[in-house]
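Narrative summary of target 7.
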Amino acid sequence: MIKIINTSQVTDFTVFSREDLKKNEEIEKSVEAIIDNVKKNGDKALFEYCEKFDKCKLDSLLVSEDEIEEAYRSTDEYFIETLKQARDNIAAFHEKQVRNNFVITKEDGIILGQKITPVEKAGLYVPGGTAAYPSTVLMDAVPAKIAGVKEIVMVTPPSPEGKINPAILAAAKIAGVTKIFKLGGAQAIAALAYGTQSVPKVDKIVGPGNIFVATAKKQVFGKVSIDMIAGPSEILVIAEPSCDPSCVAADLLSQAEHDKMASAVLITTDISFAHKVSDEIERQLRLLPREEIARASIDNNGKIFIVDSIKTAVKLSNEIAPEHLEVCVENPFELLPEITNAGSIFLGKNVPEALGDYFAGPNHTLPTSGTARFSSPLSVDDFIKKSSFIYYSAEALEKSHERIEDFANREGLQAHGKSIGIRFKKF
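Modeled conformation, tokenized:
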């Protein structure tokens, strides 16, 4: 049963923030051992882990072109068209994020600028296990393509029969993924970070995964770049009492079914409405195929907060900094300027979170666990590097050299100063 909490006497909203996920030393050590094994033994270790964890004995880690084509042909035309429309929506949104080079030309022969370069190789992790996520393929691969990444390498765990879900392969073909490997877990992250005989080493790894995947991404960071350390999924709904309780309940459950650790939170001003939503959650839970997962999420992490006003609801939401924020009010754009911390914001009563998961266009790879206070959704920026460049003519340097030398000397770095001064006098 979801917890209902009246906040009328509470002023310190930080007490409602989600607790940090505790570091699990056993998992840390297990992942470290897996990474070391993959670094040392390459493909041999990957085949062994595939057999151990995925119960799958493979002859090749690489998904063949024939397998991809067969999966594409076996996917019904209606869903193929849905994938293409979703890809186009995602592309249209992310194309607006493209950054341009710029050059500033100043007097006396000074030229300054910024050069944008895509990463050469990107690794995409696509989860398997209890569900398949072709949406993640599109959300991760499309921005990489728009950024200009030459090689997009995808890893995803195989079934015990050595197969990849056809919808995932169809999405990969539509999104323009370069290579696909039958790999999951921490071993897949290690392979992307360090490279093996089959798997190319990449420059950046993106995509969600379980605690082993998240831990592996954390451990290889520095050797490669990563998008974020994603925790369990979250949804926060701010709802007026005029909302349909069944819709609000359904939206909360849409994230609760992801993971037993997922978090579903409602903030409203009316206790009667809160109980109606609670009752609807219980009714709808019994109808879900993933009831066990969703119920654990609701029982452990589900909350309804009763506040004195929608303005207070926004304040509390900003403290929590949710991954997904639904603003189910009559005039959501009036509240938008007040919302400062959220991964993705869904405005109005006709915008369930699932719209963003699959189809609208903004990315669904989002900051979790309160990190929306300082980080952003996956974007084209995740697949580029920005280099600055500087050109000074001799005349321009001569005008500034004494100030630069003085600056360096004040920092106690005389060699810095001399590297400037030597061009105008001998030491």
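The chain has three domains: 3-17+231-355, 25-226, 394-427.
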